[in-house]
Design goal:
The complex is a heterodimer. Chain A has helices at about 5-20, 25-50, 80-95, 105-125, 130-140, 140-150, 155-185, 190-195, 200-215, 225-230, 235-245, 245-260, 260-290, 295-310, 315-350, 360, 365-380, 385-395, 400-425, 435, 445-460, 465-480, 500-510, and strands at about 60-65, 70-75. By secondary structure, chain A is mainly alpha-helical. In chain A, strand 1 and strand 2 (about 70-75) form a beta hairpin. In chain A, helix 15 packs antiparallel against helix 17 (about 365-380). The longest helix of chain A has about 30 residues, at about 315-350. By secondary structure, chain B is mostly helical. In chain B, about 75% of the residues lie in helices and about 0% in strands. Chain B contains 20 helices and 2 strands. Chain B has helices spanning about 5-10, 10-30, 35-60, 75-105, 110-125, 130-150, 155-185, 190-200, 205-220, 230-235, 240-265, 270-295, 300-320, 320-345, 365-370, 370-385, 390-405, 410-435, 450-460, 470-485; strands spanning about 65-70, 75. A two-stranded antiparallel ribbon of chain B has the order 1-2. In chain B, helix 7 crosses helix 10. The two termini of chain B are about 20 Å apart. Classes of the chains: A mainly alpha, B mainly alpha. The interface of A and B includes residues 66, 135 and 144 of A.
């Protein structure tokens, strides 16, 4: 599999395009950015097609010792593959979403986005712990600029909050990484994943990593940067923030916290459950009363991410697979929802829910897709949302029935706020004349939402395509966690085979 | 130890002394008209001195062969590393000066001469193997620096900076001398080797006082908290090319000197000074970061930033091992590049008439009026904040790695957490340049040399700098080994 450095190429294409965009006019910059993201998507497809399911755990590995202290080591497993695919799939859509709505400083905007793409792929592909950290942290710079320059009214506050919050979480993680590398004597991530740290120390290391990933995730109560950043970011910024950047937290848990510190993860599992349960219920209730569409979806993201963490800390295959699928599904669905908001925001320049109404009448196609993504967000069977949430909750049920009960309540609340949102926006009377005069989706917008809709349905109807590449990796992780697995409180047992066979027949006969 | 060997070892100092004296004569007869010629010759002398010290670094010179004049002077790899940085900074300060001074009609022939003498003094500081050599080098540098700070005679702020620098610098020298006299009194020798040998057993209270006073004096020179108060005033008041010089070369020299004294002379008594350094490091990081937040003048902001950076470097010193020393030396190289880039960018901030602009608010919207300059400042700011993938991150990374490897987890955790406070004010500069509406104040043309130096520093601190990690890491490792070999 090794040989052609496809991962390096995937990093180089957007990076080169980003540098070029800085010097280009608006029109040329748009075209170049779209071309570069499409090339990267094509490379991603090649990557997926050549990925050997059931083959070696780490594929497409590259290693160059050109630095002192760390190395240029890339390589992916199934988990990383899927998240890279998500990133390269969403990027052309993001560029498309900003095609007309971004008018000032287009070159810089496109450059920032392409840089984000480079760094995201880098995060998922890095096999050196310090290289990972650099990609992980470097994403702050372009996101800070995207929110701060092209954001809405309170953009400056939001950009500061985003930057400082996430930076504080990450520096503690770096101290822990330094210690781990010092103790284990290697910066190689696969080796560190198999290294058994002293359970006493694991506690501290886990907390340091948790500080970073919990903020990135974001988990309640350190989620407050997310609504601020989302509301102020431009549409494409929100798509990429919700679609991929939030996944870095989940990826961090699955790649670092769980395999490297199994004992500490088990020890802190109740904490994660508690925070997740609180998050699901509290943020869903908050979402219910939002009058700003983007804020509502931002809070729903926090709730969905809580389902991810609950699945991750269920310590079984269902939970882990489920949380991966929730991440992928949420990447598509929340991205699509932000896109839907962006579509009508471009027309009316407001995100106030009450300014819309009855859009199903004048924008039928829009209403159709908005409904599809709303249903996917709720987790309707047949859409991507259902598979992941069902598996996650099934996983946690084996360990903690209470957590499963409360998180499922969150799903119900999720249905409530999403349907309520949809009713107010798409149904009812056309209260506002300007909203009633809005044109339906044009070709460009259809080109963005149709692929997303198809992907959502594909993942809902045939999730095997997405589970197959990561099955072996999840199984390996599950085996690694087995020694620390907390005892479940539900202990499902097989039903007793009833001896009274004739009784049942008699019972049936009486009808 | 014959004289000719010693004289060969001090070749760079001889070059600089003779060049300085000749240039002084040229200045005396040529007057201010010759200042450009003298600048060029001074840069040439500094480059020649760099060429003379480079072999010692590349060859990893250490041990008795590098000791001159009966141990008073050391021309080892450590000294060479520091000297290259010092000469480089001094040369850069000469290159950027004419464009600034000539417009004010203040380009005088003494400027390059003073810089050469200051560089000579700093070279002696980092090569010191004896308390007396140390003091001679320190004073030679300081006397030249006091004059440089007050170089703009017509500007009241410059005169004030010179006076403040002189009074506080003299006080610091006094404290340092007092510490040296105590050390001499309790060890009976002024040579570093002798002090190290005499202190190998139990530490007497008097010697401890000597260490503490010497540390206080040195902390003054590196502007570490709690002896940092002069820095913002002097940095703001001194002419910008001089500030550039102050923020780079003397920092390297004083830091090198501190390393020599603590790791070599007091290397046997790590316990006695380690906790002081830990406190000073953390206090510098925090005070530097908090102090910078309210600043409106970008030169004052850079002054607090340098206090902050000194704190980070001292984290490496607190580790008290070759790894920590190597990390500090690497950090110093990156720090010099970031500081040069930062101050050159400040020099490029001029209004339509060419007057220097120092108010941060006037940078508003710079990314639209002067995109290249804004990008340069943004790179410097993010790098100073230590955000990867910029190279400034690597300096912080190395010193904290040294601290963690030495088992000082709390120091690393607190220091890193405090670096987030620092990120705030660097972000503020980026915010003003990129997010605010253009103020259209900074419109003046930039000197081509300024552009060149800013470009070179930005390339160095960009992610491309990581390609140098092996080479620079090797050099700083050699230098650190040489420092510990002597003790």
């Amino acid at each position: 599999m090794s040989g052609f450095p496809i991962l390096s190429l995937m990093l180089a294409v957007p990076l080169a395009a980003a540098l070029a965009c800085l010097f280009l006019e608006a029109k040329a910059a748009r075209t170049l950015a779209l071309a570069a993201t499409l090339v990267d998507f094509a490379l991603g497809v090649v990557l997926w097609l050549n990925f050997d399911v059931g083959g070696a755990q780490w594929q497409f590995t590259e290693r160059l010792e050109i630095f002192s202290g760390f190395s240029w080591a890339l390589g992916i497993d199934g988990i990383a593959l899927l998240l890279i695919m998500l990133s390269v799939f969403l990027m052309p859509i993001c560029i498309g979403a900003s095609w007309n709505s971004i008018e000032k400083r287009v070159g810089e905007y496109m450059a920032a986005f392409l840089l984000v793409e480079t760094l995201m792929i880098g995060v998922f592909a890095a096999q050196d712990i310090f290289l990972f950290y650099m990609f992980f942290e470097a994403g702050l710079i372009p996101m800070y600029l995207i929110i701060g320059i092209w954001g809405g009214a309170d953009r400056i506050y939001a950009s500061y909050k985003f930057f400082l919050y996430t930076l504080l979480g990450s520096v503690l993680m770096l101290v822990a990484m330094l210690w781990m590398v010092h103790t284990a004597g290697t910066t190689d991530v696969p080796t560190l994943m198999a290294y058994d740290f002293d359970p006493q120390v694991q506690t501290w290391l886990w907390l340091a990593f948790f500080a970073s990933f919990a903020v990135k995730m974001p988990m309640w109560p350190v989620h407050t940067w997310l609504p601020a950043a989302h509301v102020q970011a431009p549409t494409a910024g929100s798509v990429i923030l919700a679609g991929v950047l939030l996944k870095m937290g989940g990826y961090g848990f699955i790649r670092f916290s769980l395999p490297m510190f199994p004992e500490a993860s088990a020890y802190f599992a109740p904490l994660v459950w508690g925070l997740s349960m609180a998050a699901v219920v509290i943020t869903s209730l908050i979402a219910l009363v939002q009058s700003d569409m983007k804020k509502l979806i931002a809070y729903s993201s926090v709730a969905h991410m809580a389902i991810v963490t609950i699945g991750l800390f269920a310590f079984n295959v269902q939970g882990l697979e489920g949380s991966m699928l929730v991440m992928l599904s949420h990447g598509l669905v929340s991205g699509a929802l932000f896109l839907c908001v962006g579509v009508i925001y471009d027309r009316l320049h407001t995100r106030e829910i009450s300014r819309y109404g009855g859009l199903a009448i004048n924008m039928p196609r829009y209403a159709l897709f908005f409904l599809l993504f709303t249903m996917a967000s709720i987790g309707l069977p047949g859409t991507s949302g259902f598979v992941g949430e069902f598996l996650s909750l099934g996983g946690i049920y084996q360990v903690s029935t209470w957590a499963a009960l409360i998180c499922t309540t969150g799903i119900i609340l999720g249905a409530a706020y999403m349907l309520y949102l949809y009713r107010r926006v798409a149904f009812g009377d056309q209260k506002n004349a300007d909203a009633a005069a809005m044109a339906d989706l044009d070709a460009r917008e259809l080109l963005m939402v149709v692929p997303l809709g198809l992907a959502v349905l594909w993942m809902g109807v045939y999730p095997e395509s997405f589970i197959a590449p990561m099955r072996a990796d999840i199984a390996a992780l599950d085996a690694r966690l087995a020694r620390a697995k907390p005892a479940g409180d539900s202990a499902p047992t097989n039903g007793k085979a009833k001896p009274a066979h004739h009784e049942e027949a008699a019972h049936g006969g009486s009808h | 130890m014959d004289w000719s060997h010693s004289l060969r070892l001090i070749a760079p100092e001889e070059t600089l002394s003779i060049a300085g004296l000749i240039l002084l004569l040229v200045a005396a007869w040529g007057g201010d008209k010759a200042s450009r010629l003298i600048s060029i010759l001074a840069v040439a002398a500094l480059v020649a001195a760099m060429a003379l010290v480079a072999p010692a670094l590349c060859g990893g010179a250490m041990g008795p062969d590098t000791s001159a004049f009966f141990g008073q002077y050391r021309a080892d790899a450590f000294a060479s590393y520091a000297k290259i940085l010092i000469y480089l900074s001094a040369a850069a300060s000469l290159v950027i000066a004419p464009a600034f001074f000539e417009r004010l009609g203040a380009m005088r022939a003494e400027y390059p001469v003073l810089v050469v003498f200051a560089a000579l003094g700093m070279g002696i500081m980092v090569s010191a193997g004896d308390l007396l050599t140390l003091y001679i080098g320190l004073e030679m540098n300081s006397l030249a620096a006091y004059v440089l700070a007050a170089f703009l005679r017509t500007d009241g702020r410059s005169a004030e900076a010179g006076l403040k620098y002189f009074v506080l610098g003299a006080l610091a020298s006094g404290i340092l001398l007092f510490g040296m006299s105590l050390t001499y009194g309790f060890t009976g020798t002024t040579s570093f080797d002798g002090i190290s040998a005499a202190l190998s057993g139990e530490l007497s209270a008097g010697a401890l006082f000597g260490i503490v006073f010497m540390l206080a004096g040195l902390a003054f020179k590196i502007s570490a908290v709690p002896f940092h108060m002069w820095t913002p005033d002097v940095y703001e008041g001194a002419p910008t090319p001089v500030t550039t010089f102050f923020a780079t070369a003397p920092k390297v020299a004083a830091m090198g000197l501190t390393m020599r004294v603590l790791l070599d002379a007091f290397g046997e008594q790590v316990q006695a000074w380690q906790q002081i350094i830990v406190f000073v490091a953390l206090a510098s990081i925090v005070v530097g970061a908090l102090g910078a937040i309210g600043q409106k003048n970008i030169k004052r902001l850079m002054a607090y930033s340098s206090i902050n950076n000194v704190g980070f470097m001292l984290v490496g010193l607190a580790a008290a091992n070759p790894q920590g020393a190597a990390a500090m030396l690497f950090y110093l190289a990156i720090y010099v590049a970031m500081t040069l880039g930062g101050f050159v960018a400040i020099l490029m901030l001029k209004d339509a008439e060419g007057n220097a602009v120092e108010d941060i608010a006037t940078l508003a919207g710079l990314s639209r009026t002067r995109p290249a300059l804004a990008l340069g400042i943004a790179i410097v700011m993010f790098s100073l904040a230590g955000i990867p993938p910029l190279f400034g991150f690597w300096g912080k990374f190395l010193v904290f790695q040294a601290a963690v490897d030495a088992g000082m987890m709390p120091l690393a955790a607190i220091g890193f957490a405090a670096s987030v406070i620092g990120a705030f004010y660097y972000l503020k500069v980026v915010k003003v340049m990129y997010f605010d509406e253009p103020a259209d104040v900074v419109t003046g043309e930039s000197d081509v040399w300024h552009k060149a130096i800013l470009a070179v520093s930005c390339v160095f601190i960009s992610p491309l700098g990581y390609l140098l990690t092996k080479w620079l890491g090797g050099l700083s490792g050699t230098a650190a080994t040489a420092l510990f070999f002597a003790s």
